[in-house]
Amino acid sequence: MVDRRSLTMKDMWGAVAVLAVALVVVLGLMGNIGFGNDTDDGQTPTADVVGGFQRSAAALQLPLAVPRGLPAEWQPNSFYQTDPATTGGTASRIGGGWLTAEGRFVTLIQSTATPDVLAAEVFGGGRTSTAVVQAGGTEWSSYPGAREEVAWVRTAGPVTLLITGSASEADFRILADSIA
Known about the structure:
Elements: H1 9-30, H2 49-60, E1 75-82, H3 84-87, E2 93-99, E3 105-111, H4 115-123, E4 131-135, E5 138-144, E6 150-156, E7 159-165, H5 169-178
Antiparallel strand pairs: 1-2, 2-3, 3-7, 4-5, 5-6, 6-7
């Protein structure tokens, strides 16, 4: 047994160093620390947005709009479908997003909720339409979105469509045209 009174500050720092190395090894094995062999190559994630909308339309038996003819430079990067029972919302939400050629995001969300309810569920309560925009051969109501973004909302039969994101108005129009 070691007499602790004979231990020095150097011994304490040695023990701390051993513990630090052990911690780094454990975190590395758990995947919480990378050691230079990261497989992330800086690429934006991809998703099958068009296929997701098609599958959701069939599964939910809803006439969802499926984007067609989007620019090849747009990278589909997200898709989701929510269930109101798990999200506390009033209706299912189906959404997909793209990274535009300028590196900005645009998202299409579809739901059976009314326009005001969908805007409130997506951005928080108290949102009301502030303008009307003509795009894709129809009228869209413009709502203030999150941060500096806007949202364009319209109904198509039983489905409410919402376009939002950091993309330009020109990109919003491209997406609106693709679902006209």
